[in-house]
Specification:
Length: about 200
C-alpha cells in the first residue's frame, strides 16, 4: 500500500509551508537531511559551481536563509562578483526536493557576522583558523592544517556569514498518486504561486 498523502498535497499554501518547515527543521537539527544544502554560484569564468554547506538558519517570514563560510573561499569571490545564487535541498525519506533562487549578501564585519560568530561553537571555529585559504595548493596535506592563531577569537577574520534573500522557491513532491510541483515567485513584488507540470 502506498503512503497516505500529506494534508498539503493539493494545497499551494500548505505546500509552501511544508517547504519552509523542511528548511527550518534542517537548520535546527543536524540529523535532518536538509541540514546540508547544495549551493550554486556562477563561477568567475561563467561556469556553474556547486558545493555542500551547512544550513544555519531559515527564516520564512523574512524569506531568508544563512550559511557560514571562509572569506577566502572561491564562493565568496564568486558571490561578490555576482550575488545570484541557487540552493538545493533534498529530503529522500519525505520525497521532497526544494530549489531556491535569490541574492546573497556576504557579511564580514557587521552585526549579522558578529552574532553568527558569537553563536559558533569552538569546534566549528577551528575551520577558520587555517593559515592559508581553502583551495590553496599545498605540497603536503598535513601542512594545510597549520593554524594561523590561537584562542577563542582566532579565525574571526576568515569567518563570514552569507545570507540569501529568496526570490523564488520550487517544491517537488514525489508520490505514486501523482507528483506535485509548485512554484512561488516573489520577484515581482507580490507572491505568485502556481502548480507546475512535474
Ligand atoms: C557535509 C559538508 C558540510 C560542509 N559545510 C560547509 C559549510 O558550512 N561552509 C563551507 O564553507 N564549506 C562547507 N563544506 C565544504 C564545501 O563543500 C566546499 O568544499 C568548500 O566550502 C570550498 O568551496 P568553494 O571552493 O566553492 O568556495 C562542507 C562540506 C561537506 C561535505
Amino acid at each position: 500500500m502506498s503512503a497516505p498523502l500529506p494534508p498539503w498535497y493539493d494545497d499551494l499554501a500548505g505546500t509552501l509551508a511544508e517547504g519552509w518547515a523542511q528548511l527550518v527543521r534542517g537548520a535546527a537539527d543536524r540529523r535532518h537531511p536538509c541540514h546540508t544544502i547544495t549551493v550554486a554560484t556562477a563561477g568567475l569564468d561563467g561556469a556553474p559551481q556547486l558545493r555542500t554547506v551547512v544550513l544555519r538558519a531559515a527564516e520564512p517570514s523574512a524569506r531568508r536563509m544563512r550559511f557560514h563560510t571562509d572569506a577566502r573561499s572561491r564562493k565568496v569571490a564568486e558571490l561578490e562578483a555576482d550575488p545570484r545564487i541557487a540552493v538545493h535541498a533534498y529530503n529522500p525519506a519525505a520525497k521532497i526536493q526544494i530549489r531556491l533562487w535569490g541574492r546573497a549578501t556576504v557579511h564580514r564585519e557587521d552585526e549579522v557576522a558578529a552574532t553568527a560568530w558569537a553563536r559558533t561553537r569552538p569546534f566549528s571555529r577551528v575551520c577558520y583558523r587555517l593559515a592559508q585559504g581553502p583551495g590553496t595548493k599545498v605540497p603536503d596535506p598535513s601542512t594545510a592544517l597549520a593554524e594561523a592563531g590561537e584562542g577563542p577569537e582566532a579565525g574571526r577574520e576568515a569567518f563570514v556569514a552569507v545570507t540569501v534573500a529568496i526570490a523564488r522557491l520550487e517544491f517537488l513532491f514525489l508520490a505514486s498518486a501523482g507528483h506535485r510541483r509548485a512554484l512561488y515567485d516573489w520577484a515581482t513584488g507580490g507572491q505568485e504561486a502556481s502548480w507546475l507540470v512535474p
